[in-house]
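From the shared-data thread, chain only:
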Amino acid sequence: MDLFDLVESTLQECLPKDGERPLALCEAMRYAVESGGKRIRPLLCLHSAIAVGGNADDAKYPAAAIEILHNYTLVHDDLPAMDNDVERRGRPTVWKKFGEANAILVGDALLSLAFRVAVKAPRNAAAIVETLGNAGVGVVAGQAEELAWNGGTHDGTEAPDDFIYSHKTADLFVAAAKMGALAGGGCEADVEKIGKYALNLGLAFQYEDDLIDGDGLFSGEEASRRVAVHTEAALAALAGLPGDVAFLKSLASRLAVRTI
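Structure, as tokens:
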């Protein structure tokens, strides 16, 4: 089975079924996760299992879990109290279609579901759940820091991108990769290599986003430089892994030059 199809079939297995109660909540949960997207994080998870010499099928539940958690963050980010977005991926956002209260509940339910799915991993389930939990807390911390900076209430001295980008963006990449490596039976050293790769991948991804959106903290020249530096570091981290890393190399190169 194609790995994208494996992601989709596992998500379908784990999400509420049509007609399940409460109807509005279950419909909105499916709407949130089935709204498209490139499935970068779950594919990263599956290919990380392969990169450490494991089997992608062993990482299918961690892969679904990270995608479910990612979509919870999008549902809550879109709320009027946060980014107040009314459209995502060419469709109304969850709060716009189902109402704010339902959107909050959808996010809550997806977050909980992610852990219920992650624990089904065939090996290292406790470490996988801990990794997912660390990412969940990290993403919220990054969002809180961004709100503080944008609102002018932050009193810290650290450059905001260091904390915000590492947590709000890169944490989910790191979790996806490490969860896959753990599910694939990777040794501690290889899990750490995969994590270093994913951290730099996530940072390069965010700096490329800044270039695309034109609203980053740095000039275009500086953002481009950072994309190149982190992409190079991501690729270097893959050296010595026992499995096939072709997809991970291609992913790093593609994300660094994307236009959307």
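The longest strand covers residues 87-88.
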